[in-house]
Amino acid sequence: MEFFVISLLNGVSYGLLLFMLSSGLTLIFSLMGVLNFAHAAFYMMGAYAAYSLGLKIGFFPALILAPLVVGLLGALVERYGLRTVHPYGHVAELLFTFGLAYLIDEIVKVGWGLTAVPFRVPAALHGPLFTVYATEFPKMRGFMMLVALLMLLAVYLLVTRTRIGLVIQAALTHPHMAEALGHNVPRVFMLVFGGGTALAGLAGVIGGVAFITSPSMADSLVPIMFVVVVVGGMVSLAGSFLASLLIGLIQSFAIGLDWSLGGLLDALGVAVNAHTPLYSLLKLQLSAVAPTLPYLLLVLMLIFRPKGLLGTRAD
Question: What distance in Å separates the CA atoms of residue 139 and residue 30, rounded to the nearest whole number?
Fold first, then answer.
């Protein structure tokens, strides 16, 4: 029971961090049709911006200001870069964001060095939040979960319950009509892209202080980020939320289990020895292959449900 509860809490907290990262990418793609390959780079910028600001003003003010700085940078990128290449199609947009990711990566290396920076958990978030049996659940993970849930609620209310959200949806589906009603559609898209990158920056602040802030932090999350978006459904924020939790739970439980196909066969009375075909594969423990399970889920999803968990099939 202790293993189950702790694995459940760790899986949910990690899944919510994945959602914080992928939600901005899903939002940008669903509202603008832009697959932003530089999204993880903005995540990294959020961590480094919060680290630098935190040295001057403290962690909690930096938690608010760093995403705003990253969002402003994203808005400028859309206004003076992405908008310029938009007339040339989605391939040009993809290549632009792909190159932008490498540019941000090099800027970070030049500005902060090649090694990890000491971005530490603030004193207020040190220590256990509560104890489950003999295992302590840290305050930082609880804070991570709280921020992710508040972010989900804020984005949902903004998009579905406010006039700004209605204007954004109208600009997406009927841009000419929205312009005829006096709305500046290009500005709306700029704000959407800036808001999506700000969400990445917020995830970077939390992920950077909870794990590690280094130039490689973006590279390690790019694959899993796109797995979440595809599994959830490319245009579904709710689908990304479910996929994030699912992947977080799969990895959290799998990494603590020493099950193997060989052990299962032994339990069923089937002899497994060194002369059995694929013996090494049968003896491979689930914990050893835990990092590959999300990609297995991605392959199965593309085979059996290409539109994702909550995605809609385009006609």
Answer: 34
Q: Where are the chain's structural domains?
A: 2-214
Instruction: Indicate if the alpha-carbon torsion angle 303, 305, 307, 311 is positive or negative.
Output: negative
3-state secondary structure 28-42: HHHHHCCCCCCHHHH
- Express as a percent the part of the chain with pLDDT over 90: 37
Place of tokens 């969002």: 71
Distance between CA atoms of residues 145 and 13, nearest Å: 5
Beta bridge partners of 213: 117
Q: Is 220 helix (H, G, I), strand (E, B) or coil?
A: coil
Residue 127 CB: number of other CB atoms within 10 A? 11
pLDDT tens-digit map of 83-110: 899 888 888 988 999 999 999 999 999 9
Using an 8 Å Cβ cutoff, are 167 and 179 in contact? no
| pTM (two decimals) | 0.88
pLDDT in tens, 226-238: 899 889 887 788 8
